Amino acid sequence: MVVSLRLPSLSSLFLPSVSRRSPAVLPRHHHRILRTPVFAASFSAQTTVSETDDRVDTQKSNRVQDQAVTPRSKDFNAWYLDVIEQAELADYGPVRGTMVIRPYGYAIWEAIQDYLNVKFKETGHSNMYFPQFIPYSFIEKEASHVEGFSPELAVVTIGGGKELEEKLVVRPTSETIVNHMFTQWIHSYRDLPLMVNQWANVTRWEMRTKPFVRTLEFLWQEGHTAHATPEEAEKEAIQMIDVYTKFAYEQTAIPVIAGRKSKVETFAGAVKTYTIEAMMGDRKALQAGTSHNLGQNFSRAFGTQFTDESGLRQHVWQTSWAVSTRFVGGIIMTHGDDTGLMLPPKIAPIQVVIIPIWKKDDDRAVVLNAASSVKEALHAAGIKVKLDDSDQRTPGWKFNFWEMKVCGYP
Amino acid sequence: MVVSLRLPSLSSLFLPSVSRRSPAVLPRHHHRILRTPVFAASFSAQTTVSETDDRVDTQKSNRVQDQAVTPRSKDFNAWYLDVIEQAELADYGPVRGTMVIRPYGYAIWEAIQDYLNVKFKETGHSNMYFPQFIPYSFIEKEASHVEGFSPELAVVTIGGGKELEEKLVVRPTSETIVNHMFTQWIHSYRDLPLMVNQWANVTRWEMRTKPFVRTLEFLWQEGHTAHATPEEAEKEAIQMIDVYTKFAYEQTAIPVIAGRKSKVETFAGAVKTYTIEAMMGDRKALQAGTSHNLGQNFSRAFGTQFTDESGLRQHVWQTSWAVSTRFVGGIIMTHGDDTGLMLPPKIAPIQVVIIPIWKKDDDRAVVLNAASSVKEALHAAGIKVKLDDSDQRTPGWKFNFWEMKVCGYP
Known about the structure:
The structure is a homodimer. The first copy, chain A, is of the alpha+beta class. Chain A has 13 helices and 19 strands. Chain A has helices spanning about 20, 30-35, 45-50, 75-85, 105-120, 135-140, 145-150, 175-185, 230-250, 295-300, 325-335, 365-380, 395-405; strands spanning about 1-5, 5-10, 30, 90, 100, 125, 135, 155-160, 160-170, 195-205, 215-225, 255-260, 270-280, 285-295, 305, 315, 315-325, 350-355, 385. In chain A, the strands form six sheets. A seven-stranded mixed β-sheet of chain A has the order 6-10-11-17-14-13-12, with helices on both faces. Chain A has a three-stranded mixed β-sheet with strand order 1-18-19, with helices on both faces. In chain A, strand 18, helix 12 and strand 19 (about 385) form a beta-alpha-beta unit. The longest helix of chain A is centred in the middle third of the chain and has 22 residues, at about 230-250. Chain A is elongated, with a radius of gyration of 24 Å. Chain A starts with a strand and ends in a 5-residue tail after the last helix. At the A-B interface, strand 5, helix 5, strand 6, strand 7 and strand 8 of A face strand 5, helix 5, strand 6, strand 7 and strand 8 of B. Chains A, B: One of its GO terms (biological process) is prolyl-tRNA aminoacylation.
């Protein structure tokens, strides 16, 4: 009667008491993660880019929901797209390269947000919101920034039925508009450090896209900080890549490698780019989070200055750092197996599904009652549990559905 | 030593034990809200629009932070803009009509999100995310929708350096793209009701703007549901306006009037629009939330059909409903007074500020220790408390700053 989530067997991740308290819960054990930690020592531009072989707007397959996913071992890419479709994580938007994040996929993103949001606040950052329309001239102010982003911009040229005097860029990232505002808010050393974050959508006109991994519009958080010294900025950049690393290991069971990007891969406008990358099931690297020490590149371009304690005017030292919905793709590609999706329990929207079965209508109330008790017990133990008591589907259909979507069963 | 937040005296809102437990906390009492409940019986298009007399891009005044706000009683509009600037709630973005929501203003929005997000999930909705770029042709599919939104659209015509074949609209609202997707997900009555919500940014090219109240880009949640019967859709539309009403009363202490919009003010594409409106301090009405019964207008335009239990194909019945960052403006305009901002305690990011004062350096440790104890006691009692123990400012500066920003003191 109880279907349990197929969980990676990192026992430290799961509440140790669960299987003891609830004998009906028998998670299938998978040792794949523990067997494959063969990591690339460095991540070249090629490996980072090479997982984007497919376009989001690839013609949808005509697979029906009742069909199994392509085995991961047979065709990793077809498997990935199958899992996303059949587990109802995301769908293709009407505009090439855009993605609709469906409730089950979005719940994974919400779990990521919930964790990181707390960590960002604990480390002294406040949330806020910058507008997404940026005057075209802003992008042009920082030489390597304009070079890095120009080919990827979406541009608004018409507003309220009229041709605009200055074209507006839909933010690909917010360093330029952030500096425009910081320049108004930062006057003296007393205003530093200034440490903010925003949860937002960003747009990059990528030609090769893939759900979650690379899409025209995606969701992310972007942290932006300004400091009085280069040492402070460097410390901040490292602190945030550490937050990401810990998150990847402890919450998502993804053994990432933290390191510094090569010069050619450094963020457009940054002095140093730190990254966490992980090897996916197809042995390709995925960049899962970045933290940039921006030095004074943007503060010089925008004139973001402060008066220090001795009365001298200085340019601030800055950082920016981001994790996006790409992380959801990383979780899928790290933990999935031939049968479909497997989610790390701390991130899983549902950890256990209960499917009640009765033979005679007389048994219905008794079974439902027992199922509810199990649900309550699991819920009280902190397990995210779903009781699928809908009348519209048979237990067989439900088993197939939940296994395809997120679960196996003992 | 203790500065308390200036709170409206709706005692039911505040923890009754606070002033008893913490004799140092002496909230100033304001009875203005209780004195002014003279509500407009109906809200005409004129009154709803008339509070937008000012543009976000109004030249910034050259008031400095140490200057008091314009008294509310003297010039409501100047007062409103002063409060937003001096309490650091928001600032003007570089593009006309756009707004930067600063941390203190954003924290109010986060409090709104936290409450509503729970209520939406309790009433059976899941969060998800739809892309913001909508093919221009989608907008044109529903006659009154295109008529209502065409003058307000921001249009992307260039992507990746090239002129696009089909222009893309930056969403002013998502009914069209939602229906495009619903049509792919809804097949039979078993797929209904479909009840989702998204937290997102939207863009409307308004000519007359005002921070929070009306901006080119704003943040909101938009709920979208599809049902098998018109009765279910109507019930849902009313349920959600009820959620908003309860939120306005119980969390923000804004006595709203719930009602139905006149035909001319009904949402473009809806059959009925329910609204909550409240009278602001200048005796003008502000629309603070809407819930639309869309009938079959969009499902007919997009062909969103399902097979009912008897095997017949029918168009779904739909709703949509939204609350935006405008609500923050409503809170400011309802509760503020001549001296500045006053926030309802359930929404206030900070309820009490403690400013330690010592005469001799020897006293410093003792005072800070005592202040910390008070802070801990308040925190334990569930009060959102801030201890401003920074060395960079004098107590006098801090008193002025916090009074101007959010607090009065006894």
